[in-house]
# Entry
Amino acid sequence: MERMQIAIENLKAHGGRITHARKAVLQALVTAKTHVTAEDLLNIVQKQFPEVHISTVYRTLDALEKLGVVDHVHLGHGKAVYHLTDNSHQHIVCEMCSSVEEVPYQLFTELQSNLKEKYGFQMRMNHFAVIGKCRRCLKESGSTRPSSSTH
# Structure
């Protein structure tokens, strides 16, 4: 229940209203304990509130994201997934086995600083995952280094 209380306090701190839909979506995010799509959230919410429609979930997620309580990320070619912002992190996704790992956002601060300084570009790292090969797949493929692309 602690994460739920933190999410509600975060919502209040950013001037957000506490509605039934927002509480239901926040509770679904807390109970999911992983990254979930809007459809996953709808399935969780509808167990308690069967009348909730997918459009309500999307509007709620959009409002919660604008208030900084929820974030979405693209972990590859699939649908966006959502998670609470109480634990800032970046995602790395294996292009071979599709495993997802959360890594500290601070690992990318030097890259972010370099892009800002050299190119005047403000990077938003948390919107997309970093794609590559995980340790296990590198080992299984016999490769000692990640593949590189010349795109």
About this structure: The longest strand covers residues 89-94. The radius of gyration is 18 Å.
